[in-house]
Amino acid sequence: MLKNVIVHVIVSALLLVLVDYMLAGFAIASFGYALLAALVLGIVNTIVRPLLIVVILPITIVTLGLFLFVINALMLLLAAAVAPGFVIDGFGTALLAALLLALFNLVASSVLYPKRGNKSR
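Above: the chain's sequence. Below: its structure in token form.
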């Protein structure tokens, strides 16, 4: 279990660095700060995000789930406010970063945890 958490934090840090290279208003000072930012983001997503999703559930339903990207952007901004060496210039940059991170996490998850074929008994 601890191995999975460590791998997840390292992969998240690598994805944050990838987004740093792609977006001008998204900056991480070094890979060490990316690790710290990934850890803070993981804590924020574990504690704050579920509470926010419950509070804003009606808006999420009306927008067919698209408002979750706004919540993810807010979580990125909160992590950037807490973690040193991690800066996001504005909400638009955070929203674009949230979209990119969702896409990159989808790809990384499919590579790290490939779906096993259905084996009938």
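The beta strands are 26-28, 86-88.
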